[in-house]
Design brief:
285 residues; 6-stranded mixed beta sheet; Nitrilase/N-carbamoyl-D-aminoacid amidohydrolase; 14 strands
């Protein structure tokens, strides 16, 4: 199957315009043979929302979600949005839709609040990391900072993930003198390589481009094979549409060659984590 990484530059707080752009991109992706289109983090709203967060929020039973369900009849979608949940909570969420159905919602677990980031001020914290069944195999979604922490990817691997979809809005930080790329983009590339080869899965990372409120987003969306090799990369900073072939046979071959998952011992990890947390919380004296 073919997947498309939709490297967009959303209009800040303009859901209608961004949805129209999603529909146009799906048209292009389907014309190129894609069956799955992965959009960036908060692709329907833009990133630096601040006090506009409630104004652009979408409930899962809203007409806007119905429109996304309809769009998903053309291709499966991984879309970033602000989800309004009961109790006055707003989540930085990723929705996976296919065939007119909402299959899964991931709510961002790790919310950065340093430097230019201020997510904990506006968003509630997600508390689940789940893989789910699709026609493409077992899929798991992570949102930006979730991907930088080792635990979420490991949890997906322990749930037999086949395709890891990562939705990001990663600003450019630091410049590499040798490659000319941002250091933050190079770090994500390393993670894609490591997770692909460690877990024998495909990694589809869609990062936004463009400039928003003076902040440059790095673009450079990437797809990694189950052996850690780079399959495709989008343009730096600009909008782009990257279509890549995803071969399930490559996952089987990688897992036979390097059987890390067969060797894995999650019960040992769980036991030792429980011990570490118990010792950490116990008083020293």
């Amino acid at each position: 199957m073919k997947a498309a990484l939709a490297q967009t530059a959303p209009q800040l707080a303009n859901v209608a315009a961004n949805f129209a752009n999603h529909a146009a991109i799906v048209d292009r992706a389907v014309a190129a043979g894609a069956e799955l289109v992965v959009f960036p983090e908060l692709s329907l709203t833009g990133y630096l929302l601040m006090e506009a967060t409630p104004e652009v929020a979408i409930t899962l039973d809203s007409p806007r979600m119905d429109a996304l369900r309809t769009l998903s009849k053309r291709a499966a979608l991984a879309v970033g949005l602000v989800e309004e949940a009961p109790g006055g909570r707003y989540f930085n969420s990723a929705a996976f839709l296919d065939g007119g159905e909402l299959l899964h919602v991931h709510r961002k677990v790790y919310l950065p609040s340093h430097g230019l980031f201020d997510e904990t001020r506006h968003f509630a914290i997600g508390d689940r990391i789940r893989a789910f069944d699709t026609r493409f195999g077992r899929v798991g979604m992570l949102i930006c900072r979730d991907f930088w922490h080792l635990g979420p990817a490991y949890l997906l691997a322990c749930q037999d993930v086949d395709v890891m979809c990562v939705l990001s809005a990663s600003p450019g930080r630091g410049a590499e003198s040798d490659s000319g790329r941002f250091e933050s983009g190079a770090s994500v590339s390393l993670l894609g390589d490591v997770y692909g080869r460690s877990f024998g899965c495909h990694v589809l990372h869609a990062n936004r481009g463009g400039v928003e409120e003076g902040v440059t987003f790095v673009g450079g969306s990437e797809a990694y094979a189950p052996d850690g090799s780079l399959l495709a990369r989008g343009k730096d900073e600009e909008c782009d549409l990257v279509v890549v072939e995803i071969d399930p046979a490559a996952r089987r071959a990688a897992r036979l060659r390097m059987p890390f998952l067969k060797e894995e011992r999650p019960h040992l990890i769980l036991r030792e984590l429980q011990r570490v947390l118990s010792e950490r919380s116990a008083p020293r004296y």
